Every structure is written in structure tokens, then in C-alpha cells.
Design the sequence.
């Protein structure tokens, strides 16, 4: 129980740091601008204006969410070591895993807070433009939140052992590849080579399948979304994040803070 | 074993190697150091810069893993975390989350240290008072001066009422008033029965505060024990300044007390062994001289380090080390 309290304390402090820093507001401002730009783009078209508007809006939420997760996340642990704030925290009865989990939880909470703000803006713009809003949109946004938690775990892992520059490169790479693993597997299965098929299937297993979290098309076009398409990616995301955090803990446990 | 002799910090044969750069070459920072700290004492861990003081402290606080050897605090291996509720730590030039206020940061550390919610606010207020920061309690730490950060650092080290307190160069970068405040606080904590482990390279602080010291040079412990015993080999001296001293008397002091003279004109300065200072001053005053100043002449820590480094080099040569 006291372990949870310590994780919560570090998480709350991480959220507080984010809320009190200017970088986040700048990113959030641009995200809101992009969601609003959907209105402008939709006027260029005579057909499917609402769909264009919502396509741009959901893409903005996903892209800016990912950008914030990676760019705020990569400095998460590194900054604590670099500024030596970690010395006093770890001198208290706090284990390194608790510290890492607290930082991760704080980052996820910050991101979810952003998603709520961006989602509210998306709904407002949709409502003003008279575009339909339904359960599909809620499910799509829920999975965006799920995907961002996985990205936070990726950022936490890289942040636990490398510099922010390298970590952002790795993080961005992970994000891009994560959205391509399905295509990669498809490519492998069509190549006709057993070795290529096995290799691409393995990559699909090891790298995150972030496309599973993308329900934008279904939501925008009002297509039915079965429950399994929501809970399966969420469960997958939870396991994937837990594995990444476990690796991060093992790496972090061995580090010397000079 | 009596309570006073109870060992609260035990370091045994600790070795630490760092592998800078690509990690091909090994750099030994601590070479099998051992020492112990007893309950209730102020222990000075003394050495020149780069001797391994901070590395040792970080090993004790679990921030660095030793390559070999063991370290324990209150009977717990330093890799454990639960016992740290009894340990306080002030790093050298402490850094804190500057977006928090003084009060917020103390609440943060109190929660992490398991201070119960009901007494937390009272404890935080009490500590803000103790380090004289009530007026700045609700200002962000980015507006704090160096001295204020040092004081908030001390407050966070004490927020959970620890038994053992580790201070890394606690007087570093402070003005004379700040140094005195910290010194007084250390003495207060000592009076409350806390065990204090202090890294320092300032001899006057060591002499004024510490019960026992360990002297570390280039990763080796050169001495462990009371500071007086270490300095015992050196005869203590005083600098005495006298005015209107009859010249013939001034000339006789060197031969009589081994007190060479410096200075010209009215004020003459003598460096006299401490044991003869009283008698020499009495004779001078009887002859109509005036005492202008009396300053104890301290052996500088540099001299001690230098002799320790020389000893280190001699031993290294004898053992065929590099």
C-alpha cells in the first residue's frame, strides 16, 4: 500500500511539473489549431465536409498526442539524473522501480489530460460544423489514449538509459514502425519466401502493433465497431507496456548515478 | 555493547571501479576501503577533491553499486530501501524541483518518506521554522538563493526525523553567517542524539564539530579515529602580536620559547608553541608590552593531505603499484 502511495506521489509531481511547464501549452496550442484547421480544409471540398473535418481532427489528436508522449517522455528520467534531483528522491525509502513507475504513471496521466482537452475541442468543432458524433468516436478516442500509454512506456524505457536526443529518435522510430508492422507482415506473407514470412511475423510480434489502436476510419464513417476491437487492443497495450516497463526497471536497477 | 558503541554505518572492503568512455579501461576510485560510524557521533569523512568521498556516500545511499565489498546502515545492506526511512541525505549543492514551492517540496519528501498524513503539515511547518524559511515557504524554489536552497535541503533531509544523517560538503559555497547557522544546526542534531556523517575538506569544521574522522586519499583510508590523535604528531602553535615590546626581550623570545619573530616597528609577531604562549605573554605584559592579537595557528588540511599523499606514494612504490 505504501508502495502505491510513493508511486502516486512521484506521478502527481510529474503531472505538476508538466502542468507548470510552458512547452506543453505550446504543443497543445498547435494541436488545437490543427483541429480547428479541419474546418478550413473541409470548406475546400463540396462533398463529405464533416468526414474531412473529423479525419483531420482525429489525426491531429493522435499525432500531437504521440509527439507530446515522445518529446516530453524522453527527458522524463534523464532530466532527473542530469539535474541530480533523483539523488534526494532515491535516498528516501523509494525503490528504483517505484520511481520509474511513478514517472510513467505521471506521464500517462498528463497525456490523458491532454487527450481530454483535445477531445473536447474535437467535439466542439464537430458540433459547430454539424458533424455527427457517436459511440464510435468515443471508442476511437479511448484507443488513442491506449496507444499513448504504450508510447509513454516506450519513452520511459529509452529515457531510463539514454540521452533525450537518442531516445526521441528511437521513440519516433518505434512509433513509425509500430504503424507499419501489419503491412510488413502482409509483405512477408506475400513474398513467397518462408524465411521472410517468419522474419516479418517475428517483427510483428516484437514491435508494437500500433495500427490496432487506430479506429479513426470506422468512427468517421460511422461503421460498426465490435467490442473486441476495443478491449483486445487495450489488453494488448497493457501487456506490451508492462513488458517494456519491466525491461526499463531491470536496466534502471543496474545504473550508477554519478 | 553499549548504545554509544553501536555501529550504525559499516563499510567493509569496498571497491569501486568506473569504466569511463567506452568502458575498455578501468579506473579504480575506491580501493578496498573500510570504516565504521558509531551511534550518536559526528563523523567527518575528510579528503581532498577527487579522493572518493562522494562516491563512498553515493554507495551508502544506494545511488552507486560497489564493485566489491559490503556497506550497511543500521544493519541493513545498502541495496535495501525500506530502512531509508531512518536515513536523511543532503547532497553537495543540492538541486530540487524548482517549479515547486518550499512547502510543496517538503510535503513531497514527507510523503515519500512515509510521514503519516495527519502530522505531515505540522511537521513541514516545524521544519520551515527550524531552517528559518517560513517567509519564503510559498515561493517557488527557482527564486531561492544558494543559502536558502541549502537550508531547504537540510529540511528535506530531516523531514522524516531520521536517525542517521548524511551531509555532503554541507558548508560548501555558503557565506560565514550561513556556515555558522549550519554548524549550529549540526550541533543541535547531535544533541538530539542523531548520528551525523559529514563529507568535508574544511579542517576547521572538522575540528569544531567531529568526534571522529576517516581520512581518505586517492581511494584509500589513511586514518580513522579522533581528529586530535591524528593531529597529535604536530605541535600546536599560536601567532601572538605584541606592541611596545622592549627590543632585548623580543630578541630573547626565540631562544627561550622557540618563538621566531616577524614584523618590524611597533607591532611584532611571534609564532610560539601553544604550551609556551601563556608564559611568554605574561613576561611581555610585565615588561610593559601590549597584547594586540592571539591567533591559534592551524595546521592546514593541505599539509595533512600532502603528507598523506606522500605516504600513499611511498607505499605504492614499495608495493610496486603504479
Sequence:
Amino acid at each position: 500500500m505504501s508502495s502505491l502511495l510513493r508511486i502516486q506521489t512521484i506521478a502527481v509531481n510529474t503531472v505538476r511539473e508538466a502542468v507548470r511547464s510552458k512547452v506543453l501549452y505550446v504543443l497543445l496550442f498547435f494541436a488545437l489549431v490543427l483541429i480547428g484547421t479541419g474546418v478550413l480544409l473541409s470548406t475546400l471540398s463540396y462533398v463529405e465536409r464533416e468526414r474531412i473535418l473529423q479525419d483531420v481532427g482525429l489525426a491531429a489528436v493522435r499525432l500531437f498526442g504521440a509527439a507530446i508522449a515522445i518529446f516530453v517522455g524522453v527527458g522524463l528520467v534523464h532530466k532527473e539524473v542530469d539535474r541530480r534531483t533523483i539523488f534526494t528522491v532515491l535516498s528516501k525509502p523509494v525503490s528504483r522501480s517505484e520511481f520509474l513507475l511513478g514517472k510513467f504513471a505521471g506521464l500517462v496521466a498528463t497525456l490523458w489530460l491532454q487527450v481530454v482537452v483535445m477531445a473536447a475541442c474535437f467535439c466542439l468543432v464537430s458540433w459547430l460544423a454539424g458533424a455527427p458524433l457517436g459511440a464510435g468516436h468515443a471508442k476511437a478516442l479511448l484507443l488513442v489514449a491506449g496507444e499513448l500509454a504504450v508510447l509513454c512506456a516506450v519513452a520511459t524505457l529509452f529515457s531510463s538509459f539514454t540521452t533525450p536526443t537518442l531516445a526521441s529518435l528511437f521513440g519516433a522510430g518505434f512509433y513509425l514502425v509500430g504503424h507499419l508492422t501489419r503491412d510488413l507482415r502482409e509483405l512477408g506473407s506475400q513474398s513467397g519466401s518462408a524465411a521472410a514470412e517468419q522474419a516479418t511475423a517475428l517483427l510483428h510480434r516484437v514491435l508494437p502493433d500500433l495500427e490496432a489502436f487506430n479506429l479513426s476510419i470506422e468512427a468517421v464513417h460511422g461503421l460498426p465497431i465490435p467490442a473486441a476491437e476495443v478491449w483486445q487492443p487495450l489488453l494488448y497495450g497493457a501487456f506490451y507496456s508492462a513488458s517494456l516497463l519491466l525491461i526499463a526497471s531491470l536496466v534502471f536497477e543496474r545504473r550508477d548515478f554519478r | 555493547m553499549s548504545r554509544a558503541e553501536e555501529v550504525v554505518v559499516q563499510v567493509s572492503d569496498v571497491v569501486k571501479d568506473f569504466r569511463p568512455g567506452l568502458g575498455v579501461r578501468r579506473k579504480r576510485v575506491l580501493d578496498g576501503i573500510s570504516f565504521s560510524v558509531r551511534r550518536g557521533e559526528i563523523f567527518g569523512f575528510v579528503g581532498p577533491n577527487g579522493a572518493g568521498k562522494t562516491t563512498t556516500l553515493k554507495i551508502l545511499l544506494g545511488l552507486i553499486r560497489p564493485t566489491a565489498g559490503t556497506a550497511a546502515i543500521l544493519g541493513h545492506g545498502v541495496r535495501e530501501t525500506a530502512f531509508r526511512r531512518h536515513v536523511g541525505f543532503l547532497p553537495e549543492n543540492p538541486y530540487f524541483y524548482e517549479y515547486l514551492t518550499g512547502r510543496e517540496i517538503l510535503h513531497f519528501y514527507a510523503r515519500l518518506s512515509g510521514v503519516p498524513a495527519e502530522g505531515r503539515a505540522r511537521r513541514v511547518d516545524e521544519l520551515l521554522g527550524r531552517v528559518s524559511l517560513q517567509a519564503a515557504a510559498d515561493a517557488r524554489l527557482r527564486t531561492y538563493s544558494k543559502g536558502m536552497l541549502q537550508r531547504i535541503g537540510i529540511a528535506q533531509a530531516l523531514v522524516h526525523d531520521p536517525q542517521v544523517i548524511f551531509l555532503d560538503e554541507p558548508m560548501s559555497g555558503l557565506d560565514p553567517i550561513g556556515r555558522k547557522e549550519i554548524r549550529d544546526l549540526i550541533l543541535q542534531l547531535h544533541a538530539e542524539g542523531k548520528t551525523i556523517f559529514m563529507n568535508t575538506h574544511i579542517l576547521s569544521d572538522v575540528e569544531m564539530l567531529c568526534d571522529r574522522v576517516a581520512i581518505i586519499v586517492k581511494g584509500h583510508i589513511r586514518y580513522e579515529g579522533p581528529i586530535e590523535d591524528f593531529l597529535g604528531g604536530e605541535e600546536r602553535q599560536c601567532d601572538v602580536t605584541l606592541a611596545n615590546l622592549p627590543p632585548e626581550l623580543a630578541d630573547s623570545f626565540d631562544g627561550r620559547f622557540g618563538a621566531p619573530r616577524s614584523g618590524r616597528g611597533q607591532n611584532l609577531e611571534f609564532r610560539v608553541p601553544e604550551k609556551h604562549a601563556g608564559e611568554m605573554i605574561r613576561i611581555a605584559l610585565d615588561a610593559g608590552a601590549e597584547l594586540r592579537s592571539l591567533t591559534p595557528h592551524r595546521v592546514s588540511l593541505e599539509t595533512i593531505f600532502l603528507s598523506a599523499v606522500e605516504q600513499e606514494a611511498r607505499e605504492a612504490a614499495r608495493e610496486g603499484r603504479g
Notes: The interface with chain B takes residues 2, 5-6, 9-10, 13, 16-17, 20-21, 83-95, 254, 256-258 of chain A (CB under 8 Å). The mean pLDDT of chain A is 88. Chain A has one domain: 2-179+214-253. The radius of gyration of chain A is 20 Å.
